[in-house]
Amino acid sequence: MNSTFDRDGEDVLSTVLLVDDDEIFSSTLSRALRRRGYEVTVCNSTEDAKRSVEEDPPDYAVIDLRLPDGSGLCLASAIRERNPDCSFVILTGYGSIASAVEAVKLGAINYLCKPVDADAVVAAFGGSAAPETETPAAPPDQPLTVSRLEWEHINRVLAEHNGNISAAARALNMHRRSLQRKLLKYPVKR
């Protein structure tokens, strides 16, 4: 049971704010976290999450990096302003070194690549990372290629523009749809 004590010494469940636009994933993860003793609030957008944080700041937050109405990193900053003691984990299907560094600068206790399970999230809350969730890197016998470097550069520019695809596309001097297609691809290993 993951709990804390209130002012009167009552046992209270630790609260988790789960923010992800994938409703099936968030439903599955929230059930698994509840079975592990957490009280979970699920939000599918940054606006819903901000309202939830205003009403009841969580102990922990699990935030998707890319949300339909904004960046998970901007949301993390807003949550930290409201509750500086909130520990948060960033989830992403598009792992990059640039976004991982930005997340850590904002105070993330971990950065996990999807797919992720509740055990990895709980381990992240404890401060230990599961080795299989690290940002993908080129194998040691394969050097970084131009495609890999381009992919890293694109993700760095995207992080600098707070996840705004249109602004990043302008900065990269490419069409927005071309950028979206490149972001859907994993980095080339060879």
What does this structure look like?
The chain has eight helices and nine strands. The chain is an alpha/beta fold and 190 residues long. The strands form three sheets. A five-stranded parallel β-sheet has the order 4-3-5-8-9, with helices on both faces. Strand 3, helix 1 (23-35) and strand 4 form a beta-alpha-beta unit. The chain is globular. Residues 3-11 and 127-146 have low confidence and may be disordered.
Structure keywords:
190 residues, alpha/beta, Rossmann fold, Arc Repressor Mutant, subunit A, 2 domains, 5-stranded parallel beta sheet, two-stranded antiparallel ribbon, 44% helix
Helix and strand topology:
Elements: E1 3-5, E2 11-13, E3 15-19, H1 23-35, E4 39-43, H2 46-55, E5 60-64, E6 66-67, E7 70-71, H3 72-82, E8 87-92, H4 97-105, E9 110-113, H5 118-125, H6 146-160, H7 165-172, H8 176-184
Parallel strand pairs: 3-4, 3-5, 5-8, 8-9
Antiparallel strand pairs: 1-2, 6-7
Helix pairs in contact: 2-3, 4-6, 6-7, 7-8
